[in-house]
Amino acid sequence: MADRFDKLKVNFIDQDESVQVVADTIGSSGDIPERYVRPEIEADHVIIADADSYRLPVIDMSRLINHEFSKEETAKLGSACEDWGFFQLVNHGVDEQVLQQIKDDITGFFKLPLQEKMTVAILPNGLQGFGHHFVFSKEQKLDWVDLMFLTTRPVEERSLDFWPINPPTFRSTYCLLKQAGWLGYRASFFSSNSLDKYSLEIENVSAKLFKFMAMNLGVDEEALLGTFKGQPQSVRINHYPPCSQADKVLGLSPHTDGVGMTLLLQVNDVQGLQIRKDGKWFAVKNLPGALVVNVGDVLEIITNGKYKSIEHRAVINPDKERITIAAFQSAPLSCTIGPLQELLMKGDPRYRTVDGVEFTKGYFAAKLEGRRYLESLKLGVLGLLVRGLGPTVALQSPQSTVEVEKKKQWNAENLPKTKPHEARRRDESPPAASLPLKLDDEILLRLPPRPSSLPRASLVSSPTPASFHRLFRARHRNHPLIGVFTNEGRYGSISFRSVLDPPNLIPTEALLADSLAVIECPSGPNGLRFNSYQIVLARVGGLGLATILSCNLQMWERKVSSEAYNCRNLGKAMAEVRTIGSLPVPNVQALAGTCNGSDERIPERYIRTEATCEEVISNYHGDMAILIIDLSKLLSPQSSEEERLINHGVPEEVIENFRSSIVHFFSQPLDAKKEYSQLPNSLEGYGQTFVFSEDQKLDWGDMLYLQVHPTDTRDLRFWPTYPASFRQSLDAYSSETKSLALCLFKFMAKAVDADPESLLSIFEDQP
Ligand SMILES: O=C(O)CCC(=O)C(=O)O
Ligand SMILES: [Fe+2]
Q: Where do the segments described as Disordered lie (predicted)?
């Protein structure tokens, strides 16, 4: 099943090297591989937590929940989140046995031979499992840590393939239950084990904290829990092997957590967490039995900056391994992340509002680089620097008129003169409300058409209008070739080989997932030629460009199937298609309710002047009748000139079941259907597909769009569970109609005198 991270397309490259193995190999020789050496840490001043002014606040859960002390402790909680963004939580109530079991299991897992740990290794471009995160290039400095990352809640989103089966108490299993009496061994029962139990305890603790935080903020008690609906949770289990030259390496680079709140359990009593306060690194002293809690980026945004998401990092001990479990309480990908309305009564929003998918993608793209992504979401003076394009320009939000004037002046002096209609287009379009920072197309156009432009371009990543693609082509003419695709990949898949040198060299794995959407023109048996700049555009432009490129994707898929590439990436390609998404539009059902048949109240976007002047013939007869084809006759050996199609062979019952499921689904109240709403940048779900621009005319219909084949590309989040028969009936209906379509393809090929299998080879395994 697709998990919540499928949509994120994080292009980590494989780092197969286990830090534990590196540590064992170098022993005390001190020959640390260059990639782990971090000269920057020597210069950092670290304060050790003895001075009173630097003692991390301690919050006592037993006081929070005790009427007598609750008010006082809640205020303390609030100050901790405002002043520090971190606190130690004592008396949190997590069961001692659960804590001990998870500690034992995790310690046991990291003691296993590497080979065994690798059975749950993170897959290429994946996130869950054992391995490393945030490795984007072969040159990048590496953290001294092996980690295991798992989605833990909601339970149905777990990918158990990545949950170690050793130690056996780690994951939930079915057990045989010996029953007394004549029944002997009875059916299995479900036993939840250490990680499951721990994750539930943490969910409970965080739910309580969110409530007290809401009280402290003066908003509805449920307001934060509402944003963190369903309390999605994942854990990153960090194993930091000792390093004889600990002061040369970093366990975890400085970062903020891109989540609501993190609860950190120190599995063994080795210190290593440091937080940045007042520009200095401050070492957090372990407090026995406490959980270290910190505010994440999402909570900072939701509280409009009142609570702080603070940079932190992990350092290494020279003699002892260190193990921690960070449990991340996140917001669902389907939610909107922005300052709480209730808080805005007291002031302007200080952050722009983004959806969960955009937020999480942006967080990963910013590569653990401190607060960079969070800062980019701030409204007001942002000072994004674009270098190498003439003078350094600090681009400001539209509110600042002085800066707008400065920008205009700079544009006038430095940018190519545009044609009047282009200038008009730009002037007319108001600044997007949710996008305070809109770089003019021209600036992006001036970037050299090289992959190394990417980092700069990604700084201003925002939906780019389709016209940009045209302008880009006009300016740069041919896209430079940056590499070829071959079928010699490590995983039996298509692999990319760069033909450029650094800094334009793009590592194979880093490119693969993105590139699926942008391949053009096959050439020769060995490879597909690949026009590079489209990748840059796809990354810069997002929605608009990905849309244009969808036809190329189809071309590629055809190529793949007809040349029988061993393509394990088809599923990924489909996931790519999903990112070619529609813009959100209101539900027509809701509009229909408010319009009451009165033309004036129908929004302009739905009014189609062309519809009224076209002639429509409603009575078919004679030549105009739609032909009826009888499949049973086509299939019979005597068949020949028949032109009727009935008796298609799809069982009545299958059709009826599906029909009735659909009727039931659509007859639900709008809110129930909205549970399955399309996510931004996605096609699937309840809503309208193929809406690519704000001014496009809209269809008067709500639809439910689902990917049904191949079955492993199904995203069940969008498959209704009401009526209960829905999923099963769609499954049955889709497999019947698929067989029917394949059968028709055969006859169609025959009808044009082609080999009957020729169309099948294109469509057989196709979506
Ligand atoms: O292990 C630690 O001390 C810090 C872990 C952490 O910050 C994280 O996993 O996000
Ligand atoms: Fe962290």
A: 405-434
